[in-house]
Amino acid sequence: MEVVITENPGIVAADAIAAHVRRGTVLGLATGSSPLPVYAELLRRRDAGAVVFDGVRAFTLDEYVGLPRSHPQSYYSVIRREFTDPAGIPVDGPDGEAADIQAEATRYEAAIRDAGGVDVQLLGIGTDGHIGFNEPGSSLASRTRVKTLTPQTRADNARFFDSADDVPVHVLTQGLGTILEAEHLVLVATGSGKAAAVAAAVEGPVGAMCPASVLQLHPYVTFVVDEAAAADLRLADYYRFVADHKPQDQGW
What we know:
- Helices cover 31% and strands 16% of the residues.
- The chain is of the alpha/beta class.
- It has a single domain, classed as Rossmann fold.
- The chain has a 7-stranded parallel sheet with strand order 1-10-9-6-2-3-5, sandwiched between helices. Strands 4-8-7 form a 3-stranded antiparallel sheet.
- The termini are close together.
């Protein structure tokens, strides 16, 4: 596990993702506030000719159940608006409007598998430690399935809707076991509100009460956090030392 504490999480995370991009790359994409600067930076680099998305395809982590894909806050709409449409990247996402949600979960797992798996997965983290929409108590081996959001997550996401009551209760999300199959996981967290969750994920025990702690079991994971999100890390000084002395040939 690598922990990068930086004033520019969006740029550092874009560095990690861009290092993987080549024809045939499969990207895993997250929505929410934290990834937006990453997408903006990747598009800036595309416009400057520093990265090319030809032959790249993408999969999203999750979707609200019952929210039309055309809704401006559906994750399918958000990711297309913020990144994949401008980048010219075809994207697949779980269909929260599917008549048979369980069958859709199976389809989505198969689609990722048939694409050869995800090469680099961008993640955010909830204030309760969730990744994707795997809320506390989720099985560490879980696959794509329906989850019920906690009241806290619905309250956190209410800023994207007219009111908290408009936030759907159920979601279709990749499971923790599904996420762990990606080759490289890059998690971005910013702000003091994420500090406790980041510390629990990086330095706490591995367990279902902090779903992101399962990332400790992955061989290739990078946490990219700002100073505020790193405030509760006991080994913050060591992580800075490691970053300052990273071997030049190690790369991402």
